[in-house]
Amino acid sequence: MECVISWKTSDPPPNVWSLRSVRTRLLAIALLPIGAVLPVVLGFALFWWLGQFDELLVSKAHDDLIIARQYLRRIMERGDEQIAALAQSAAFAESARAGGLDSLLEERRKVLGIDFLYLTAADGAILAASPAGARPAGSARWQIVGAALGGKPRTVIDVFDADALDAVSPGLAARARLDLVPTPAAAETDRTIETRGLVIHSASPAPLPDSRGGTQAGALVGGSLLNGNLGFVDTLNDLIYAHAGLPGSSQGTATLFLDDVRVATNVRLFGNRRALGTRVSKEVREAVLGRGRTWLDSAFVVNDRYISAYEPVVDSTGRRVGMLYVGFLERPFLLARWAMVAAVTAAFAVAALLTVPFLLGLARAIFQPLEQMNRTIATVDAGDLGARTGTVSGQDEIRLVARRFDELLDRLQARDAELRAFARELDARVEERTRQLEETRRQLVISEKLASIGEITAGVAHEINNPIAVIQGNLEVAREALGPAADEVQTEFDLIDQQVHRVNMIVTRLLQFARPDEYAGYVETVVPADVVTDCLVLVRHLLERASVAIETENTTTRTVEISRTELQQVVINLIINAIHAMPEGGQLRLRTQDEDRSGLEGIAIKVADTGVGIPADQLRKIFDPFFTTRTHGGTGLGLSISYTLIARYGGAITVDSARGRGSIFTIWLPAARHPD
Q1: Which among 70, 226, 385, 529 is least buried, having the fewest CB atoms inside 10 angstroms?
Q2: What is the pLDDT of residue 371?
Q3: By the 8 A CB rule, do 250 and 334 touch?
Q4: Which residues form the HAMP domain (predicted)?
């Protein structure tokens, strides 16, 4: 029989650059991850990282501000304690009676390191003052003095004008005076000098003898000027930044403001000159002094930007009179940010330069032979049955396909007649084979499911036992390395041992499910209540996280013969199932009791929850392998394995449940037989 081979097609020649062409698709597969997906992923990662970086900087500034606030508060408390101690001292009382208060106040003022100290009566009369020549006036206008005369000691920060400063200590106003330095970004002002002083102001009740032999109210008042107090800011700066480990040339700074003027600071104007008299930026002034909020952000400080934290300082009347500031130079962190961005970008660029040519070469090695075979097919379709693809470079599957394609063309014409002869017979055989294959396929599906269990089990045993062995080995190394010190964490080590053993037992349970005849647990006499107690310890974190209340009851007087680990595994599985059944929390009741069945003595462990319950149509399936009611996370093996384990020891697991009223799982085991 003569056979004529002819391929007919009406399709136009393919456009190799169309979206449906193999060339375009291969190039897209090769370049899309590098050119589109990876840049987007890197962009999101950098965006997230930079945001976290900024939050960490602001968080550090906030923590530093808390330390500064506590340090300032401690200084004020110490001043309060010192003034109160002096006012209540025997030396003060003796000097008050003998009339030698001026010398005592002078001596104690120098010892305490404060700038002024005076004693006032309830009528405002100054009974004694230090330093010599001090003439405190108008003390009654200070709220803390009135509070001290009323019996309540107080320490606050107050603002003294120049006259008040000179009145309490001659020359103190000169120390407080600062020439204002023009500062970029500060609010406009007509002032050129600052004559006021920021003072830590303390007053304490001081009983005074009166003419009738009794006592009258008095107040001992003292204070320290903070203007120019470099020791305060230097100590504060060392306290916060001495061991902070700021990167590069970043510098930590601290400042105390009177209104918006730096009166005590370690910020440098230039060289070693401190920026005393410079002013805070306008935006910070409006936020902190104007609106009374804490500033946690980048801010312009004198001549550069700092990661800054400002909070208002209030006087005895609650009025915002100044600010407390800490911060560190922003530039090194900006350089670190952009260095990271540049490093990631450069790494991506280098990776792309090295990877893209390689990927293009791989793609070209695929689509060029395919295009060559396509041209051969077009030639054969035109009527030239002698056309061949010829030799294709390379030693891959494409070359093999091209060679086999040529061999196919060689044999195609010779085989055509033979194929036609066997066509009808082949159709009949195909129909019969199709029927047989369908039946075989159904059997294979069942066989493959069962075989998969063995494969999964072997894989689990191999993949889990190795790291568990490493954990156990390193735990022993830790015990030997710690020596006697290991006794402090012996409980934790024991818990790790138990959990490692538990993992080994879980692997064994899987193997038992796949090959139950090859494994058997170590049988021992077990007290059921002890097993329940151990299980609660192991799942304690799950119970606390799920807000589940525990109720336990033990009335059993019997023991059972079973592998303790296997019984523990079953109880833990039931507890975890109960937790999952109570996603909004609830109550878990665990009870052990004596229970006889079919004339046999036994014990029962009941695990009851107040969860969602199990529908009636699912109760008969819950012990089937791979059946689970969870939408995610469940394997469907837990209850099946548990049922198999309990049945091996002559016991049973039963369940009583209904939708909406919780479930009660009961483990029944025959009691251990004890010789008389």
Answers
A1: 70
A2: 72
A3: no
A4: 364-417
